Amino acid sequence: NAAWERGRAGVKTFGAFGGGCRDNLSMYMDLADGTLLSQIMLQIDPRPTNQRINKHVNNDVNLRIQNLTILVRNIKTYYQ
């Protein structure tokens, strides 16, 4: 489907995954914090959501859990 292809193409444009200069730890933290995956999900389904992710998690476990919860909720909404 077209939305999936947009999302797949979007993966290549984000951060170091698109050829930027970042270290492996920064890339990992973007994945673990849910920020990168949330950006990709917004490319797939750009409809606004009531909750925005926290872009500056700074190793706060509660913010990380909140981001991933929002991401899972957005994925469920997309497929329903």
TrEMBL record:
Record-level GO BP terms: cytoplasmic microtubule organization; cytoskeleton-dependent intracellular transport
GO molecular function: dynein light intermediate chain binding; microtubule binding
InterPro entries recorded: CH_dom_sf (IPR036872)
GO cellular component, one term: centrosome
Signal peptide location: none
Name recorded for this polypeptide: Uncharacterized protein
